[in-house]
Design goal:
Elements lengths: L1 H17 L4 H31 L10 E6 L4 E4 L7 E6 L6 E3 L3 E7 L2 E3 L5 E3 L2 E2 L2 E2 L5 E4 L3 E2 L9 E13 L2 E8 L6 E4 L5 H13 L5 E3 H15 L13 H12 L8 E3 H20 L3 H7 L2 E3 L3 H8 L6 E6 L7 E6 L8 E5 L11 H7 L5 E7 L5 E7 H5 L17 H14 L1
Parallel strand pairs: 2-14, 17-18, 18-21
Antiparallel strand pairs: 1-3, 3-10, 4-12, 5-9, 5-12, 6-7, 8-11, 12-13, 15-16, 18-19, 19-20, 21-22
Helix pairs in contact: 1-2, 3-6
């Protein structure tokens, strides 16, 4: 039976590497692997117990502490709780174990860190003890006191038990889990894309120089869903196959095929371009809902944008990610019906969204942009577009009237009049 479980685990890994899976199916494989590991450990305990009972050579296992549920590798903000972690105590059928302590967590790798130009700092855990309930301890409030400077750390969980090994002989024993997959503790949101890239790279290339392109796409999909705050089992806008093809073709010059591979160097170059976009979608105001609704096309080439806009009247625009400027957002727009450049492109500058002005407000104030192309997919996965009036499509993102002014509670006109009155009096 143990061999059969190993074979199932191997087949699940093969699916990850040879098929482009739906996010919910890829997440299901991750859960199934955790369940298989638990069953395999429990089976080993039963076999060891049977060998002891029949006088055969055994490992004399008193029990095993294992991580039942987790979301590693992962990022977490300093002082914020990690995603829930469940730790389970497994014993044999006849083992009578007495629990002597709560389950404790500790940092076993990377507890002491040094930032550039700073002294060493110890990273500690808070809320790091939980009691077993029905053999399971659930950590839902575990947090870190300090950031890890985009350096990975690992956790380990332990518990003290007492068990009868021979008639009249009780033995105390400390059980420990294996170290977790890496975690990075951020001190501020700007670290997210570097931290997530570091974790992905460590997850992909464990002593390897390349990975299957399908495995890359499957993990990238989950990372993207996390960045855009979507659930794998009910996502609203996953990365489509055509978008995966666009990424692999434009950044690797490769097609999404079963024999395709991605090297570590290629991944590093890709993430330095794609990571900042996920950072923007995750944290920049309004971009995530604009992306989900299709108002932000994003992954479309300059040439494809021009082809689409050539079929639209002047004043029509769409929003995409710049292919050359990392993290840059570009607006492609139909300028005229004639001339050398009927379709033009504008790279949004930092000053366009400075002084409290949001990206939708910038679009609102530009008379060049009149109608926006909103992208959507039909039931067959075909990419389509609908033309909408700019203000109608973006109205939900515009500032409300009571949001305008300088923050004192007055609108701008009244403030100007008050200023004139003040000058008159003096």
């Amino acid at each position: 039976m143990s061999d059969e479980m190993s074979q199932i685990g191997h087949e699940l890994t093969l699916l990850e590497q040879t098929m482009l899976l739906e996010p919910k199916h890829f997440e299901l494989i991750r859960v199934l692997k955790l369940v298989l590991d638990t069953y395999r450990i429990q089976l080993d305990l039963y076999i060891d117990e049977l060998q002891q009972f029949t006088g055969q050579k055994s490992k004399s296992l008193l029990g095993v502490l294992t991580i039942k549920e987790h979301s590693f590798p992962s990022t977490v903000k300093k002082g914020k709780s990690t995603s829930p972690i469940e730790v389970q105590l497994l014993t044999g059928a006849r083992t009578n174990a007495k629990v002597l302590s709560p389950v404790s967590s500790e940092i076993v790798k990377g507890a002491t860190l040094r930032a550039k130009g700073k002294s060493k700092r110890t990273v500690e855990l808070e809320n790091n003890q939980e009691n077993l309930i029905n053999s399971v301890a659930r950590f839902s409030r575990l947090s870190f006191t300090n950031g890890t400077y985009v350096t990975t750390v690992h956790l380990k969980f332990s518990i003290m038990i007492e068990a009868l090994v021979e008639p009249g002989q009780m033995v105390k024993h400390k059980l420990e889990t294996k170290p977790t997959e890496p975690i990075i503790v951020m001190t501020h949101n700007d670290q997210w894309h570097v931290a997530r890239g570091t974790l992905l790279e460590s997850q992909f290339f464990k002593g390897k120089t390349s990975i299957p392109i399908f495995l890359f796409c499957n993990y990238l999909q989950l990372c993207y869903l996390e960045a855009t705050r979507q659930n794998p089992s009910g996502q609203r806008r996953p990365l489509t196959f055509s978008e995966m093809e666009y990424l692999c073709d434009s950044k690797f010059k490769k097609r999404v095929t079963v024999d395709g591979t991605i090297t570590q160097k290629e991944f590093g170059e890709f993430w330095s371009w794609f990571g900042p976009y996920l950072q923007k979608l995750r944290y920049q105001k309004h971009l995530q809902p604009m992306w989900i609704s299709g108002l932000l096309w994003g992954l479309i080439s300059k040439n494809t944008a021009e082809t689409i806009l050539m079929q639209q009247p002047p004043g029509t625009f769409l929003i995409r990610f710049s292919e050359r400027h990392k993290g840059g957002i570009a607006v492609a727009y139909r300028w005229s019906d004639s001339g050398d450049k009927p379709v033009r492109h504008y790279l949004v500058r930092p000053s366009d969204t400075a002084d409290g002005r949001t990206f939708p407000e910038f679009l609102k104030e530009s008379s060049t942009f009149v109608r926006i192309l909103q992208m959507y997919y039909d039931r067959n996965g075909q990419q389509l577009a609908v033309l909408k009036d700019k203000d109608q499509a973006l109205m939900q993102f515009y500032k409300k009237k009571n949001d305008e002014g300088d923050g004192t509670g007055y609108d701008k006109e009244l403030l100007a009049l008050e200023s004139l009155k003040s000058l008159t009096i003096h």
